[in-house]
Amino acid sequence: MAGKLEGRVAIITGSGSGMGKAIASLYASEGAIVMIADFNEAAINETVKEITDAGGKASGFVADMSKENDIIDLVQATVERYDHVDILVNNAGILDNFRTVTNTSTNDWNRVMAVNLNGPYMASREAINVMLDQPDGGVIINTASVGGLFGVRGGAAYTASKHGIIGLTQNIAGTYGIYNNIRANAIAPGGVETNLTKAIKDPDELGMKAISALGASPMGKPDDIAKVALFLASDDSSFVNGAVVTVDGGLTAS
Length: 254
Description:
Elements: E1 9-13, H1 18-29, E2 33-38, H2 41-53, E3 57-62, H3 68-82, E4 87-90, H4 106-131, E5 138-143, H5 156-180, E6 182-189, E7 191-192, H6 205-212, E8 219-220, H7 222-233, E9 244-247
Parallel strand pairs: 1-2, 1-4, 2-3, 4-5, 5-6, 6-9, 7-8
């Protein structure tokens, strides 16, 4: 029986570990050809090996998703290798140690925006320019966050970047989705057990106070996010466009 993504080509950024790796592995198990994009070459090689050893199809590309040339080269290399791009998952992202506005430097602000918002914008632009010439269009999935739905689920830069990615998603859906057969949706995870959370060092005292006031957060697994990403990439969601799917174990329901 053919998989839900049989023969489709998917670029997944930040897929050397965590949620991106889980998405890539699940996509490959459903028949997709996955391009593993990450800045960590060792992590790319490990992920590609795990997928191919399991019988899937994957290759890797080292890319810094804050750099325009890397992003252009990533999409171009994918097209040269596989002739098309059917799915783009903008998953790469960084945290900001819950820094509040007065404790966020301009350099830190720009660094978070470069990866979390500018990167997805540029990757979407390049992928859409390919998808426009494809009879079946394509699908874009952006990893947002519950931090993009509320004011205090992250630091100032992180929160602003995730609000921005939701706006970008809906703009793409409302233009290319309606007129060019290109769907765009976002996933808004809550707490997820990944290596990214281990990068939190010296968190902002006021930011942590605000987060702590919200109470305990249920923690999900990368596979929980991957299953939603599979739904959004497949024909099962063919009439879902411009949606933000919250995956947080009920955190924001109370």
